[in-house]
């Protein structure tokens, strides 16, 4: 009888232990799912809030475009000059408020942790660069108005200082004015291909790369002049230029915007085509979804029919958040709207020959890769340190001068070994026919992307 009681006690203890382990597993899973959901909600909310801010700024610029037309037809040159200056200030300075807006939205949705790494430090260093480099090199970084870079540095420093440790949502698509193009070193996929021995990546993106080392890699052109009309942080992708020829279509567009007879507009041709009068236009980034780099590395496959009001790219907000237990989430959103084209149909905001109007009424989450992708990653402090410091050192002194605490630098050291690259060429010589694109994609076989959400 005692033996049986002992056996039952052992069974009960085992069952109790199993129940405890199961309960702990459930708690762990619950905490992981909750943290992931919190990161997703905070990242999505931050991106949507910043995109809403972008849309509001574009509407302000659009209303000023119309006010400028009215002032010019009334021959009020002083008012025209004031409007043009205000538009440039909105475009160049005000998008930076997205830093504060995104962090506030993320905090309201349960995340109160700064992104991993010293992103604040990177922005503080950038303020110094603006003051010492940009402001003193107008031939490379022409300011939108005299003293613009000094004002820009002051505004950025104010936002960075006010955020302090409350920097929660990192801007992941900052277009630094001193950024440079240098394929493949600025592609995260290049490093992933080295680390994972994914030789097919080189088959699809150029096997010529396998013959390059630190001495022969393509180098950036630091002497090119940069277009500096847009803010680097959450840029609106707007350009300012005159109306060169007042043809019949322009007369109809302006007549509709001002509710005036196109014949009256046509008689003001000399005024409206004055080279000194510039209006805000959407720049070349505002394209349709079908024009997303169809054969390039960062292609984003678009299938099905895109509704006309959403069939436009352009400015967007990509925000990155990290929870206290290191769960990260990156989300993208952009403002949308419609205009009535000359045929009376609803059309994307760019339909009026790219003329900016106050037409933005909505914001939507969009796939990250469709508006910049993962290679920018400007809220990833480790990656930005590699881009700004380690790659220049690689060009100057080779891979052994780079950081030994940097994963991307480790891949460059592997890459510099001729035997390593020779093994890749040997493999491709015998196996390149087995390389296939990832499943999915479109007619061109472009496959999927690493960041589809």
Number of helices: 13
| Shape call | globular
Helical residue percent band: 40-55%
Order of helices and strands: HHHHHEHHEHHHEEEEEHHH
Number of strands: 7
- Oligomer state of the chains in this structure: single chain
Index terms:
single chain; 453 residues; alpha+beta; five-stranded antiparallel β-sheet; two-stranded antiparallel sheet; 13 helices; 45% helix; 9% strand; globular
Provide the fold topology.
Blueprint: H1 2-73, H2 77-93, H3 98-108, H4 119-132, H5 148-163, E1 170-171, H6 188-195, H7 200-205, E2 238-241, H8 248-258, H9 262-266, H10 269-272, E3 279-282, E4 317-322, E5 328-340, E6 346-348, E7 360-366, H11 381-397, H12 407-416, H13 418-431
Antiparallel strand pairs: 1-4, 2-3, 4-5, 5-6, 5-7
Helix pairs in contact: 1-2, 1-3, 4-5, 6-12
Short overview:
The protein is of the alpha+beta class. The chain has helices at 2-73, 77-93, 98-108, 119-132, 148-163, 188-195, 200-205, 248-258, 262-266, 269-272, 381-397, 407-416, 418-431, and strands at residues 170-171, 238-241, 279-282, 317-322, 328-340, 346-348, 360-366. Helix content is 45%, strand content 9%.
Characterization of the model:
The chain is an alpha+beta fold and 453 residues long. It has one domain. The protein has helices at 2-73, 77-93, 98-108, 119-132, 148-163, 188-195, 200-205, 248-258, 262-266, 269-272, 381-397, 407-416, 418-431, and strands at residues 170-171, 238-241, 279-282, 317-322, 328-340, 346-348, 360-366. Strands 1, 4, 5, 6 and 7 form a five-stranded antiparallel β-sheet that branches. A two-stranded antiparallel sheet has the order 2-3. α1 runs antiparallel to α2 (77-93), α4 (119-132) runs antiparallel to α5 and α6 packs across α12 (407-416). The termini are far apart.
